[in-house]
Design brief:
425 residues; alpha/beta; Lyase, Ornithine Decarboxylase, Chain A, domain 1; 2 domains; nine-stranded mixed sheet; binds ligand LLP
C-alpha cells in the first residue's frame, strides 16, 4: 500500500502532483510520502505487538535522511545502526539511545566508545575478537556494554546472493556450534553484560520458511544457553521482510503473517523481541522522479532507448542486483510501448529496464521509478561527476526539500590540490 496514485491524469504523492515537485526542485529527485512511512511503521508495530512489547529498530541503512528518521521516531521506532555515522544520525533525530541496537561485522574501537558513552540498548556482536575489543573499551570507559551474539544459522534465505547473510559461507555472525564457547568467553570478560541473542539472514525475503528455520535454531540455542547459566532476556530477530516490486508477482508475506509465525515460534522463549526492519517500512514510501532527455533508436532492431536524467549513480539497485523497479509515466498519454530505459552514465550497466512494457514516453516527459524509498538515495554516488540527488518529503498537500541538490561547486571544492602544484621551480 502506498500514497502514489493517479489523480485526474497526473501521478500524485499524497495531495501533491509530481509535476509540481519537478517544476520546483528539478529532476532527478527522490520523493517520499510521510503517510506511507507512518502507515507502514504503524502496521508493522501493531502486528508485532502481539508478541509483547518489542523494540522495533528501523534499519537506518535503508534510508538515513534526518526527516525520515524523525518521522519514524515519532511513529515509535528505534534504530538499528551499523556505523558511528548512523549512530550519530539516529541520535540527531532524537531517537533515544535506549532504543538503539548496533549491528555489523566491523565495529571499530572509536565506534564502540561512542556507543558505550551513549548507553545504547544492545551491541550485536559477530565474533569473539569483537567481544574482547568491546570489553576493553567498556572497562576503559567504566561502563557495562549489553551484548548479544549474532548467530549464523546456515539457512539459505532464498534471496539475491549479494543480500543473503545467513549461510555459513557468509561473513556474518558466529556458527551455532561455536555459540556455547563464545557465550562462555563473553561471560568471563569484564565490562560486558550478556543479555541476548540475534539473527538476520538476509533482505527482500519473500518466503517465511527460511526465517522460521532460523528462528527455530535461535529458540533451541536460547534453551541450551540458559541451561549453561546465561541470563538471556532479549532476542533480536533482525529484518528482511520483502516488499512487492513487481505488481504481477505474488506479494511477499504480510506483517500479520510474519507476526503470526513469530508468535508461534517464540511463544515459550520468555524474552523481549527486537526487530530491525528497513525496506518494509520505507521501500514503497519513495519514488525517484526523472525526466526523459531523449528517445534514441537502437542500433539493432531492438526497442528504442528512453534516456532519462537519472543514472545508475542515483539508483544503483538495477545495475547492482538486477533489481526490477516499476516505471510509470507521471502524465500517461494512454499509449503503451516496449522500451529500454537507460541513464546518461557511460556504462552499459546504466540500464534501468530492458524491453519493458510501459507507458509511452516522449522527450520532456516525467517518469517515476517506484519503490525507491529504501536502499536508493542512500546508495547513490557522484560517479560521472553527477551531484547527489535532492530528496523531498510530502505530507498531505505540502512538500519540503529534505536534502538539497548537491552543487557541482561543492563537488569540485571537496578536492584539494597538493602543495607542490603551487611551488614554482
Ligand atoms: N539488520 C541487519 C543486520 C541488516 O544487515 C539489514 C540489511 C537489516 C537489518 C534490514 O534489512 P531489511 O529489513 O531492509 O531487509 N542494498 C540492498 C539491501 C541490503 C540489506 C543489508 N542489510 C538492496 O538494495 O536490496
Amino acid at each position: 500500500m502506498n500514497h502514489f496514485e493517479l489523480r485526474g491524469r497526473v501521478l500524485h504523492a499524497e495531495g501533491v502532483p509530481l509535476t509540481e515537485i519537478a517544476e520546483a526542485v528539478g529532476t532527478p529527485v527522490y520523493v517520499y510520502s510521510s503517510a506511507t512511512m507512518e502507515r507502514h511503521a504503524r502496521v508493522f508495530r501493531e502486528a508485532l505487538e502481539k508478541s509483547g512489547d518489542p523494540l522495533i529498530a528501523f534499519a537506518v541503512k535503508a534510508n538515513p535522511n534526518a526527516a525520515v528518521l524523525a518521522t519514524l521516531a515519532r511513529a515509535g521506532l528505534g534504530a538499528d545502526v551499523v556505523s558511528g555515522g548512523e549512530l550519530r544520525r539516529a541520535m540527531a533525530a532524537e531517537i533515544p539511545a535506549a532504543h538503539i541496537v548496533f549491528s555489523g561485522v566491523g565495529k571499530t574501537e572509536r565506534e564502540m566508545e561512542l556507543a558505550c558513552r551513549e548507553g545504547i540498548y544492545q551491541f550485536n556482536l559477530e565474533s569473539e575478537p569483537e567481544a574482547e575489543m568491546l570489553s576493553q573499551v567498556a572497562v576503559r570507559l567504566g561502563c557495562e556494554a549489553p551484548i548479544a551474539f549474532r548467530i549464523n544459522p546456515d539457512v539459505d534465505a532464498g534471496t539475491h546472493a549479494k543480500i543473503s547473510t545467513g549461510k555459513s559461507e557468509n561473513k556474518f555472525g558466529i556458527a551455532g556450534n561455536r555459540a556455547l564457547a563464545a557465550y562462555a568467553r563473553a561471560a568471563e570478560l569484564p565490562g560486558l553484560k550478556v543479555q541476548g541473542i540475534a539473527v538476520h539472514i538476509g533482505s527482500q525475503l519473500t518466503d517465511l520458511g527460511p526465517l522460521e528455520r532460523a528462528f527455530t535454531t535461535i529458540g533451541e540455542l536460547i534453551h541450551t544457553l540458559r541451561a549453561e547459566g546465561h541470563d538471556l532476556s532479549v532476542a533480536d530477530l533482525g529484518g528482511g521482510l520483502g516488499v512487492p516490486y513487481e505488481p504481477e508477482k505474488p506479494p511477499p508475506p504480510t506483517p500479520a503473517a510474519y507476526s503470526e509465525m513469530i508468535a508461534r515460534v517464540t511463544k515459550d522463549w520468555n524474552v523481549r523481541l527486537v526487530f530491525e526492519p528497513g525496506r518494509v517500512i520505507v521501500g514503497n514510501a519513495g519514488i525517484l522522479l526523472t525526466r526523459v532527455i531523449r528517445v534514441k533508436e537502437s542500433a539493432g532492431s531492438g526497442a528504442p532507448f528512453v534516456v532519462v536524467d537519472a543514472g545508475m549513480n542515483d539508483l544503483m539497485r538495477p545495475s547492482l542486483y538486477d533489481a526490477w523497479h516499476e516505471i510509470r509515466a507521471v502524465s500517461p498519454h494512454g499509449q503503451k510501448t516496449h522500451a529500454n530505459v537507460v541513464g546518461p552514465v557511460c556504462e552499459t550497466g546504466d540500464t534501468f529496464a530492458t524491453t519493458r512494457a510501459m507507458d509511452e514516453a516522449q522527450p520532456g516527459d516525467l517518469l517515476a521509478f517506484m519503490t525507491c524509498g529504501a536502499y536508493a538515495a542512500t546508495m547513490a554516488s557522484t560517479y560521472n561527476s553527477r551531484p547527489l540527488t535532492p530528496e523531498v518529503m510530502v505530507k498531505g498537500n505540502r512538500f519540503a526539500i529534505i536534502r538539497d541538490r548537491q552543487s557541482i561547486e561543492a563537488l569540485i571544492d571537496a578536492d584539494k590540490m597538493p602543495p607542490w602544484f603551487e611551488e614554482r621551480e
